[in-house]
Amino acid sequence: MTIDKVVYSKEVHLNGGFTVHQAIEQIGFTFFHYKLVALIGLRWFQESVNTQYQVILAHDLRCQWQLSIIQVAIINASIYVGMLCAAPILGAISDRFGRKVSLILSVSLIVYMSIVSIFSESFITFLLTRFLVTMGLGISGVSVTSLSEFLPTAHRAKSVLFIDVCFSFGGCFAGLIAWAFVQYSWRYIVILAAVLDFVSLLGLFWMPETPRFDVIAGNHKRALKTLQQMSSSSKDSMTTLDNDILLGDPIERRGHLRDLFTSDLRLTTVLISLLWLLIGYLYFSIIVISGNVFDLQKGLCSPNYLSNIDSITFNKTIIPVSTCFVSCHQLAKVDFISICFMAISELPGILAALLFVDWMGRRVTMAAMSLLLVLCFPLLLLCMGFSSMVVLLSVIRSIASASLQVIYLYTTECYPTFVRSIGTSNGFIWSRIGAIAGSLFISFAVVYNIYIFVAVSTAASFICVIAIVFLPIETKDRPLD
């Protein structure tokens, strides 16, 4: 459907004009959208690569540089601290100056600091440069916001959930590439990641600003041009439109965090923030533990392996366990394969979410997944073989990953355009707070007491169910404001 048909169709004709939502619904899902989904999918692929690389590199460098358990925990936590620091800034930039501007700034930072990190020779320089890389990764919420604002309602859930498939493949890719190159130098891994980030940066220059943002920013002419670009990939002919027939008033006040706590959004924001916090904790703690399956399995099945250890001996020197990671070993082939397997194992959960989210709705889908997590986490306390442990962790990761993506979808749908990016970034912030807690918790729990981790994770999953029940709206089939 072309824009000229949108304008003169009785279905959407309104006071001599049409809204962006009406135009997007009539244009449908075109080749333009396939390219856009591929571009945002590449960004999510790269976020997964960078996140998983840092976990792998922290594990590898703890042996090369003789890092303590605290230093390893700091490297793992820095992934999410960087995202946490940058997300509110990038979200505000997105709502005030545009989604495209925010995306280009963040990916440029990732590329530049990835190159700089290659020359790190110490724990401090590596930590600082990778921290700045992860600041650029704080753009995830904006990328989902940007994608959702281009999509017709019928394709929104499928497209947003599809990019999580890209995230899964990114984690597997990171494991396989690390397996191939870590024996030579971790720097080769970082170089490859930087090259892929640069490719996605070039793609962002092609992507136009979202027409929804342009309308609230008062740039109707550019919004019309973007709608024409979206429609031009269909078989229908185009017609040039005057900007006075595109309806929508500019909104001066955009991207302010306190607007999320107005009377009509306050309850939604509080509950969504809680869900992001808990689901972020659950998901990212499983990612961190993916690189420590060996220690987890040995700790559960061999009590003397990790328990009752106050110190260890290294080069005839007694070192407190708090400053040294117990049983340091280089990652082997089986570790990298397990990392890849657990990343790919997210796919069943995503496919299940794709099946149910447009049928049962966003809230019911999230609640069902949280209940499954309540049942799965206690199984981690069982002594089982390495392969069985990998499978169980993969099932938990799959469910948590799907839950995280559905809350992404729900968040972009429940907030209006003028606070959509800052609202999604607010949720992203809380998920990274949960991720920091999870990465620090896991680094110590694997060594000291995995039982506490299981108890906390089970309780967090149950609280998610309660919070979802009280969410005020269902966003299935709901037009974006």
In brief:
The chain is 71% helix and 2% strand. With 481 residues, the protein is mainly α.
Strand content: under 5%
Total helical segments: 20
Distance between the termini: 22 Å
- The percent of residues in helical segments reads over 70%
Order of helices and strands: HHHHHHHHHHHHHHEEHHHHHH
Low-confidence stretches: 1-15, 236-244, 305-326
Q: Name the overall outline.
A: globular
What is the number of E strands? 2
The structural class is mainly alpha
- Whole-number average pLDDT? 80
**Major sheet characteristics:** 2 strands, antiparallel
The side-by-side strand order for the widest beta sheet comes to 1-2
Radius of gyration: 23 Å
Can you tag this structure with a few keywords?
481 residues, mainly alpha, two-stranded antiparallel ribbon, 20 helices, 2 strands, 71% helix, 2% strand, disordered N terminus
Summarize the helices and strands and which ones pair or pack:
Blueprint: H1 3-8, H2 20-27, H3 31-64, H4 69-97, H5 99-117, H6 123-136, H7 140-150, H8 153-181, H9 186-206, H10 211-216, H11 220-232, H12 266-290, H13 293-301, H14 303-306, E1 311-314, E2 317-320, H15 333-344, H16 346-357, H17 362-376, H18 386-414, H19 420-445, H20 450-469
Antiparallel strand pairs: 1-2
